Structures are given as structure tokens and as C-alpha cells.
Amino acid sequence: MSLRLLLVRSIAFILLATLTLGAVLVYWHALQKVRADMRGAMMVGLRIVDNAVDDAEEVALPRRRLELLVADFNGDRNLRAVLFNPDNSLALYSYLQPPERPAPEFLLNLLSGPPLVEAVQLPPAFKNLGILMLESDARNEVADVWSEAALPLSILAVFFSLIVIVLYFTLGRALKPLEDLTFAFARIGNGDYRTRVAPFFPRELTRLSSGFNEMAIRLSEMERRNHRLHEQLETVQEEERIELARNLHDDVSPLLFSVDVDAMTIKELAQTRDVDALVERANAIRSAVVDMKRNVKALLGQLRPSGLHALSLANAIENLISYWKSRRPEIVFSCECPDKSWGSRIDSALYSIIRESLSNAVKHTKPSRIEVLIEETYHDVLVARVLDDGGGLGPGVATGGFGLIGMKERAALLGGTLVVENRRDRPGVVVTARLPVPSEADSFPAMEGIAAQ
Ligand SMILES: Nc1ncnc2c1ncn2[C@@H]1O[C@H](COP(=O)(O)OP(=O)(O)O)[C@@H](O)[C@H]1O
Ligand SMILES: [Mg+2]
Q1: For residue 59, is pLDDT > 80?
Q2: 177 found inside a domain
Q3: Whole-number mean pLDDT of the chain?
Q4: Residues 120 and 205 in one domain
């Protein structure tokens, strides 16, 4: 059952119980009053009859006197006089004044009860002339009670019904925000983050609607970011694959080819038994294999993040640097990184930021020196810097491409910041990431002795 119906039903029940109690009290009072009035009317009636027949000795026509006495009761509100003949047959009776607004039959049955009947003791002069009886009839009294109680009771009933109706509609309006919110949450639950609710009234609920809308805005913003990160990730992965294919092709294929050629030559030389030439070819093969091993190792270093969980951050950065050293021997690289871990999330973010900064420095400019520095300040902030002495940022790089955005987002996800700017001390770019250091419980010492070979 809905909250609205539950509340309306409970209040309607209370009002109905009050109304019923009121009606029962009114009924009880009315019952006492009708009975007392009937008894009173009977006493008055008996006294009237007594007075009328008092001077019986002087009455010339006693039977006529009795008939007149019965006629005296015509139009009485509560009593009926009935005259029976000596043989018990009905001779005459008075008629009752009819009520102006008769009460309904059920009320009459409830309130009137059995009529009071009294046989009048007549003086001896009236003996054998008939039997006079007085009989009460509550019709008029009940009609009075009805007209007195009906109006207040019906006003109360109308008032209570109005309360219930007004309550029903007011509750409907007051609870509508909850209904809206339920629907809105269901839509959010189904992934529709564009859902918004109109401002709620009354005032107490306005904060609820604005809070919900803020939450929905944040969720859609997060979804958008997620989407973009996902796209970036795919782009980056695609680029990495292409780069890997190119590197394999450029660095390993020629060596494999030369090994193949040398092996063929050895086969031919074996027939001439030219030992010196054979040794020379074998040495050539060995040096090609050494080159290949170095290249493959550098490529493995590039294949992060799969490598990072096996390497410490410092080692992974060293690998990255040796990868670039082998490609750009003219650049001098330096690295100052404490051999420690700040937890996998931070390590992995730092690695990604440094990898992108290195590749930007190498790709977009011609530096002679690149420095990587990681330090922990006394204020529990981790500062990572990558500095190059290339040409610096061009004027059009206001927001950056996916690489810069990705770095900034990685830092923001960890509650930190990332700034890419031109160096002040000399031409070149400095990338500065500032990340809050996690509490002791989250950080781990660097794993030793597992640096991949
Ligand atoms: N170290 C740097 N030196 C000079 N220019 C840079 C450097 N790093 C980034 N940039 C500039 O910023 C731009 C955006 O970089 P990025 O977001 O990484 O995108 P992408 O590397 O895909 O071009 C680059 O195109 C380049 O012009
Ligand atoms: Mg880039």
C-alpha cells in the first residue's frame, strides 16, 4: 500500500472513531432524556386527570365527562388518553400532535423503547362507565432529539470528510517529489545519467532535488571522462602496437636477416674448411644475437604496465630511459628516483606520466638533456618532474592533445595536479606532477631483486 493511502486511511480511521464515539454519547444522552421526559409527561397527565375527576360527586353526566377528558388530550405531544367501554371494547382515544420533522424510523425504534401505560384510578362515581388509560408516545421527543443532533453531527461528518479529502490531495502533492525521485533513481540505475528532476516544493525538499541533480551532473561528467579515457586508452594501445610492430621490424628483422645470411655462409664455408672465415661468421651471428637481445629487452621495457608489477618503479623508469637511450644516443638522460613504492595506483600513474613526458620531449623537440626527478616533500606531497632543454611549448598548445589531457586526468584521479609549462631557467619544458602521498598503510617498500632481465 502506498504511503499516501496508509496515512489517509489512518487519519480517516481516527476521525471516524471520534465521530462514532460522539454519536454514541449523543445517543446515550438522548435515551436518558426521552425516558425522563416520558415519565414527566405521564406524571403531569395523571395529575390533570386527577384534577378533572376530583369533583366527581357534582358531575351530572359522568360518561360525558370522561369523553371530554379524553378530548382534552387531543393535540398532546407525548400522551394519548384511551377510553375503553366496560366490556373492554375501545370507545375513544385522543390524537397525538404530529411532529413537524419526524425522526427516521430506526432512530424511533432505538430511542423510544416500550411505551409507559397507566390505568387511571377513577373515583366511584365513574365506576362501571369505562376504563381510562394514559399511554406515552415518544415520537415528538425523538423528533426533537433528531432535529437537535442531526445538524451538528452532519456538520461534523462533512468537516471530517473535507479533512480526509484535503489531506489526500495535500499528501499527494507533498509526496510527489518522492515518487519523482524514485523514478529518477531508477533511470539513473539504468545508466541514463541525463536524468534531472524539477525543483521540489516545499522548501525542505528543494535541497533534495538540487542534491540529486548535482549527483546526476557529476555522474554524467564521470561517464564522459570514462568514455574519453577509454578512447584514449584504445588510441594509446593502438599506437603502442604500431610502434611495437615498427620497432620489431626495424630493430629485429634486419638482425634476423643477417643471422640467416651468416648461417648460409657458414654452410658454404664448411665445404671450403676455411676455419678463420667460419669463426668470423660465428662471431657476427653472436654479435647480432647480442644486439637482438638488447633490442628485445628495450622493447620489453616499453611494454608497460605488464612489466611494472614485476619491476620497482625506479627500475621501470630506468628501462624506459634505456629504451630511449638506444634510440637517441645523442640525448643525455638522468634519473633521480627513490627506490620505493607508493602503492600500485600511484606507481602506475607516475610511470605513465613519465613515459608520456619522455616520449613528448623526444618526439616534439630536440633536447640534448632530459632529467627525471621524483621526490617526497615534508608536506607529504610527491613531486615528479621531467625536464628537457628542447625548444619549449609552441604558442598553440593551450590545452594539449590526448597525451597531456591523459596525464592531467591521471593526476586528478589521485587528488593531485599536473602542470606542463616552459622552463624559466632556460628554453625547454618542465612537466610537474604533484600527488598527495598515501598514508603509511597504503604504501609498500620496493620489491627487491625482481627486476626483469
Ligand atoms: N616537451 C615538449 N616540448 C615541446 N612541445 C611539447 C612538449 N610536450 C608536448 N608538447 C606539445 O604539446 C602538444 C600536445 O602534446 P600531447 O598532448 O602529448 O599530444 P601528442 O603527443 O599526441 O601530440 C604536442 O603536440 C606538442 O606540440
Ligand atoms: Mg604525446
Answers
A1: no
A2: no
A3: 86
A4: no
Q: How many domains does the chain have?
A: 3
* Ligand 2 center–CA 332 separation, angstroms: 20
CATH number at residue 344: 3.30.565.10
Ligand nearest to the CA of 420: 1
Question: What is the average pLDDT across 401-428?
Answer: 89
Amino acid at 363: K
393 in ligand 1 pocket by Cβ < 6 Å? yes
Q: Assess whether pLDDT exceeds 80 at residue 56.
A: no
Ligand nearest to the CA of 391: 1
Q: Of 107, 146, 139, 131, which Cα lies nearest the Cα of 37?
A: 139
> From the CB of 438, is ligand 1 less than 6 Å away?
no
Residue the block writes with cell 533511470: 187
Q: What are the grid coordinates assigned to 10, written together?
A: 489512518
**Are residue 385 and residue 241 in the same domain, yes or no?**
no
Domain boundary among 303, 327, 346: 303
Interhelix angle 275-302/313-327, rounded to 10 degrees, is 130
Proportion of the chain above pLDDT 90, given as a percent: 42
Per-residue pLDDT, 398: 57
d(CA 321, CA 252): 19
Distance 334 CA to ligand 1 centre (A): 21
Q: Is residue 189 in some structural domain?
A: no
**Does 407 fall in a domain?**
yes
Q: What is the pLDDT of residues 101-154, one digit of tens each?
A: 899 999 899 888 899 999 988 888 787 888 899 999 999 999 998 988 888 888
Q: How confident is the model at residue 444 (pLDDT cuts 50, 70, 90)?
A: very low
Q: Order the strands of the 381-388 sheet from edge to edge.
A: 332-336, 369-376, 381-388, 429-436, 417-422
Give the confidence band of 33 by pLDDT, cuts at 50, 70, 90. very high
